[in-house]
Specification:
With 726 residues, the protein is α/β, with parallel strands linked by helices.
Length: 726
Amino acid sequence: MIEPTIEGLGNVPSSPTLVIPNRVDLSALRAIETALGGRDRVAWMVENNLRPDPEVMMYLSQSRSAGFLYAIERTGTEELVKMVRDRQVQGRHVVLLCGRPGQQPAAPTDIPGKMLSFADGSKLSALPIYVGMYRQELSGSIVTSAPYDRLCIHIMPELKPGPSLSARVRGAWMEAAAEQINDHPALQNTLPQAILQSLTQHPGAMIIDGVDDSQLPYRKLLVYALIMAEKLHKRVTNRRLGIILPPGKLATIANLACMLAGISPVNINYNDTPEDFRYQVEQTGIDRFITEARFTHKQQQFSWPAPRDLIYIDRELADVSTVALKIRELAIRLGKTDLITGRLQNRPQQPDDEALVLFSSATGGIAKGTPYSHRMLLSAVMQLSSRMPLKQGQRTLAAMPLYQPVGLLTGLLLPLLHGLDVVTYPDTGTPKRLCELAHNYGTVLTAFSPAQTNTILQSGKPEHFSTLRYFLVAGERIPTELAQRATTDYKLSLHECYTPAESALPVSISASTPAAAPGTPHIIPAAQSGTAGAPMPGMAIRISDLNRPEQSLPPTSPGLIWIAGSTVIPAYLKNRPDATTCMRGKWLCTGDVGRLNADGLLVISGRKARFSKIDDDLVPHEAAEEALCRVLNVPTADGVRRLAIVGVPNPRGIGEILVLLSTVHKHLVPQDLITVRYGLLNARYPASWAPSRIIPIKSIPVLPNGKLDYPLCYRGTCQQLGIPVE
């Protein structure tokens, strides 16, 4: 039996309180019992249809512990509160015990939301306790039951009574989980150390090139990466190096070679404008770039640096002799890779050192440089693999570019660190071939944007996706029509990801509805319509007032979304001036508005910039756009934007007006505004959602990741209406 570690013993109050651990087994139960003052100071409450495991129930029976059974469906709230108070009057802390409901892997708690709600507004205080169960290895480290190697118990400060007590308990659990994961032993390594260990343990895993079906085993991948790292060590003096390559074996070798040489790779968006590219070069200070000669000819629209600044990886590797390859293969077989890598890095790397740099897609107008540390990236892989368990021998399909966080995570880091085969393809614009690759190689995980997903589904058949267990959709919300079509026509569940650029890991991922566990009807949902799914394990979420960020709100109240955890950046590149407003200690403001619902699922309402105050109503632009699409019968499943709401200063007075940018309206007539207004009213939408102007437009400006380019829409609308732009 594992001896647990306990933190926060000083938080146990002297007066009896309601104690709510997120989960228990026998080891945790005994530790909690001791921490609360012993058996005579504790009473246990157990829901009859969700009893703890037999080992716990046997202990309670044999030790004749005080407590009571209840039925959540039949016991009224007042009666249940009275039962708790009766035990507290006896001088006992009342501990809520729970069994195993149907839930997703690495779920934060075993307690369904409705089992906590009885305490809301009951004048009961609560003591949250977070029980964390972990395995030592990186893959699937976060578990919800034995076997495990580490059992960590964190007693949080007591929470005052209130109408949102259950939501605040969940918030406390999330914060404790984030702290515990940050201290996991697997995160004390650096990224190249962890990848080296994985590649030597899984030499037979491979990269499969979807262009020609060629295979590169990880053993040879490591050989080429070591050779390239030695070349970079001799020729590159900068601590950062640009990589301009699509997904594939060369991009994998380039990134791994940089890491082995102690250089931070900066994966460049090869679809960027010259201005964006120059900005990224200035921000990072990079002066050399790895690419492929053939790719420079294919991507001619890109603003390529001078040839003297380019390192052609295909030419560099073509010159490698057979003798050099064999020498390094022998070193790998003998376990002597540390002798090679040790002399490549000018100084030893630490877990919190910069590992690589990515740039956001300029949602706020200017791209943000986000430096990710070794700890952040290892933690992202650990948390994702805990939520979405994969086995060695399974395959992922990687076509999303590596300059996007989800593409980097699922197409590079996850396969390399877990010994998974990865099927790569350099172009998301060839949907028929992507369908063939998913089917021919039996891939289980992939990631695309909503627009790409729609195109792929249109080009495929249900059998193409029969093995895809995790189809991640990132960058934008999944249109309801697309999600329904995927489920109905293709028997495919799409997993929506909420992906702020400031986190190496999606903040939340929706998942398939879990099946009920044997012996209980209780289920903790992993997704619901209108939500972005459950927060990832180790991700903490806080909600603040929209206009006063320093004032926290109950997690179930709409407000600004703040995130914290081991995958969240502590600062932007070059300390951007806006960092002071969006970063407060360990918390980072995403700029999005949302809340957690009663089941702990994240509901995203939209960007803060995409809300307008119309009279006394706060109008969410994205919700208004969805409503207008329904009213005007505008298709949304293909991911193409045809409508966009923009809030601009009222040219006739104080406040704002809503303007509809529309590709549907070719020639505007006055009747169109009346049609839109009454269409919204008849569909029972607020009158404040009706636009005051409609501007016909050929296309809606979007960013490379598919998100609306709102700053450009705003400036164009103001210019069209003659409104000065601040």
